[in-house]
Design goal:
With 476 residues, this protein is mainly α. The protein contains 22 helices and no strands. 42% of the residues are buried. InterPro entries: Cit_transptr-like_dom, NhaD-like. It is a multi-pass membrane protein.
């Protein structure tokens, strides 16, 4: 019986050997095509420009910004792959697409976990408690101006800028609901502080995260931008301080009860960030690996909340702060927190990264890089790129620069990280926090109001660049 089985296996292996012999010689790979002066290249530019125009006019057209970007990315990459297939082999284009997709997947998983934790903390009443605490402390508007800005600066070092902007904007709107001027000034300050805080820590800023993921700058080296980023925040804030009303808001006497597990979720988030940094520094794992481990911890903790939930007994009164342990979590589902993420923004980044990746694959970014980092000084190039982030998302621009592979020093990479991070504060549409607050506080915080403070923010921009050259001179 064993001999028959052996003979059968031998017979079955003959066609496999024949087939393997036929495919030992791989087909020739088509060389990279130059499409910069081809119809496909011009089509890619036209689609990219049109997609960005539609995304930037979201407030006017009511068309979500992710829709034109996702569709544009699909059209461009289909056009490129079709052209390669017509010539003979689409594999180079497919490989390039997969490379860009991998870069986006790492970004998506990182932000997904961060925003899921924020949604979980909001569900537990943590941010509502912060708003009430600020109102109960009887701070003046000027004190609240600095508190909200300072918190935005600190929190944005570990949390995505969009989430921090929306959170602190809600706090400013709650404490200043009877003083619209304060709310508008506080929002400008929050946008500047959020972008500055996220520029010296990879855990908070998109452009900073891209550089960290690429392995160009080590995690600890980013903190050398702390002083320049602080200067960027303080210069405009000190000037705006004198325009903030002196009065105090109406005191709130409302009490907020933290729901069961609130403090433990905060601890898990801190642990997740620690795992992310440690796994990158010591194991060289991508940041997304540590964040996904943290998501697993949150999922198990949500299961614990679900299984230990119970109905209140007769000794526990509804509304009693001591009764937090019986709050009914029988329907608590962590996947609802994942479903409530800002998917429009996440998909916008997909479209932006894939479009920029397509332009890079075609060859346009190499031509731009030769001009920016070959014909003019890297310092001037980085400053100009930072200024352009007032109009184009900084994450998109950083991804474009990374695709150019410029040969610049670590000091110049840090300068680029700084200028792209804080340059988005110049206009309300230049960064995710600004765009988010425009939609959250319509009629109070507007594009025109933010534009009034453009000269002050620009002064902070150049002050931060000067501080970088002063503090980090040895890196150039």
């Amino acid at each position: 019986m064993a001999k028959r089985a052996l003979a059968l296996c031998s017979l079955l292996s003959i066609p496999l050997i024949a087939v393997s012999g036929e495919i030992q010689e791989p087909p020739p790979v088509l060389p990279h095509l130059d499409l910069t002066h081809h119809f496909i290249g011009y089509l890619a530019i036209a689609i990219t420009v049109l997609a960005y125009i539609l995304a930037m006019t979201e407030e006017t057209t009511d068309l979500r910004k992710s829709k034109p970007m996702v569709m544009g990315a699909a059209l461009v990459w289909f056009a490129i792959c079709i052209q390669y297939a017509l010539v003979g082999d689409p594999k180079p284009a497919v490989t390039a697409f997969e490379s860009n997709l991998l870069a986006y997947a790492e970004l998506l998983l990182f932000i997904l976990v961060s925003m899921t934790y924020l949604n979980a903390m909001e569900d537990r009443g943590i941010f509502d408690a912060l708003r009430v605490w600020l109102l109960n402390r009887e701070f003046s508007y000027r004190q609240l101006f600095w508190i909200t800005g300072g918190l935005a600066f600190v929190i944005s070092t570990a949390v995505s800028g969009l989430a921090v902007g929306l959170l602190m904007g809600a706090v400013a709107a709650a404490v200043g609901k009877h003083e619209p001027k304060f709310v508008a000034l506080a929002c400008v300050n929050i946008v500047v502080a959020t972008n500055a805080g996220g520029s010296f820590c990879p855990l908070g800023g998109i452009s900073t995260l891209f550089v960290w993921q690429s392995g160009i700058v080590e995690f600890a080296e980013f903190f050398r931008l702390a002083v320049p980023c602080l200067v960027n925040f303080l210069v405009p804030a000190l000037i705006m301080h004198f325009f903030v009303p002196r009065e105090c808001p109406v005191v709130s006497r409302r009490q907020v009860v933290l729901r069961r597990g609130a403090r433990r979720i905060i601890a898990l988030f801190v642990l997740t960030l620690a795992i992310t940094v440690a796994s990158d520094v010591f194991l060289k794992l991508p940041p997304a690996a540590g964040m996904m481990a943290g998501l697993g911890l949150l999922q198990f903790f949500s299961f614990y909340l679900l299984r230990t939930a119970h109905e209140p007994d007769g000794s526990e009164r509804l509304g009693d702060p001591k009764a937090v342990n019986w709050l009914d979590d029988r329907e608590y589902d962590i996947f609802q927190k994942i479903g409530n993420l800002e998917w429009d923004t996440l998909l916008f980044f997909y479209g932006a990264m894939m479009l920029i990746g397509a332009l890079g694959f075609i060859g346009y970014l190499d031509a731009i890089a030769q001009f920016l980092f070959g014909q003019i000084s890297p310092t001037l190039a980085n400053i100009l790129i930072g200024l352009s982030s007032a109009f184009v998302d900084n994450g998109t621009l950083m991804f474009a620069v990374l695709a150019m592979h410029p040969d610049i020093s670590e000091g110049q990479w840090l300068l680029l990280t700084l200028t792209l991070g804080v340059g988005g504060s110049l206009l309300a549409i230049g960064s995710a926090p600004g765009v988010g607050l425009l939609g959250q506080l319509k009629g109070v915080y507007t594009f025109g109001f933010h534009l009034r403070w453009f000269p002050v923010i620009l002064l902070g921009y150049f002050a931060s660049v000067a501080a970088h050259f002063w503090v980090n001179a040895r890196y150039f």
